[in-house]
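Subgroup meeting minutes
Present: P.N., E.W., G.H.
Scribe: E.W.

1. P.N. recapped why we're keeping a running log of single-chain structure predictions: easier to compare across weeks, and new members can see raw inputs and outputs side by side.
2. G.H. added today's entry (353 aa).
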Amino acid sequence: MSAVGHRTPVRPAAPVRVDGAGPRPPSAWDIPPPYSLRSVAVVLLVALAAFFAAQRVEMGRMLALTGEAALAAVGLRDESQVLSGLDKLAGAMFPLQISERTETARIEGFDPGRLPWLSRLEVIETSEPRLDPDTLKMEDVRTRREYLVQPVGYLRHVALKMLETIEIAFWATLLAVVLSAPLAWCSARNYTFNRATYVTARGIVSLLRAVPELISALFLVLAYGFGPIAGVLALALHACGFLGKFYAEDIETADDKPQEALRAIGANKLKIMRFAVLPQVMPQFVAYTLYVLDRNVRMATVVGLVGAGGIGQELKGRYDMYQYGHVGTILVAIFITVFLLDQLAARLRKRLG
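Output recorded in log:
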């Protein structure tokens, strides 16, 4: 065959890297798959574990009851256990109870001439059957009872209890901030004194966070008795663990350049913390503290259920006596308080941010 007209096929040149490191391997342009066999196996194991856990916590029954309630709400089912229970509860809670009526004979040192604001006296005569000891016959005996009626008496009582709850939450948050500051210092790797101090501080922080407030309150009520002291300490200990952990993490991740500049001129750790770290982390610290305050207000109502003071103690007492109108008033007061605190916290974060 003549060599005239014969052309040797030319292969495309391999892409040359701009940085001069040689041709780029073709595999470098391959896009990896969005998932791997390992990730699929992990997802399947988690789904399998969730399925068995759902059977133990009756998720199927929950879905069935919720579906029945939805069908009953739109008229496709005659009755529903969930709607029936909620209807009875709503009927018992409303109208809300804001007045208070107390028999004057049960008020110690009652003075009719000095009645509370907006209150009045009310006399009610009732007829009660009693056994006559002489004739041994039942006879109707008329009794006269005097009551002190306060139109907003219970509302004022709830407001005072709610104020006590806020005070419990405030002091618990303040103690938590004070106690968590040294724990955060010792829990930060770049500021702790040594390895033993770091491990000890981290262990204390984990222990405080591991014990729920309600459990702490149960034991503290036994030690300090019923009242707000147990509530303050229970909330403060748990919040101390929370703040200690997050304060330490922010200290560890703070920008190191300002710290290096102060170290170069001979500043000690305390001065570096004050002038290089705190200005960076203070907005986060304020956000954490406000969140803990908001949470402590809500948790103060829970620890009150075991006698640790505040509105929760009042809630438990009224609930046990089936006075659901009073319970409704308490729940509305809790909602209003938490909402107002949330708005206040949002304004503070906006101003500091």
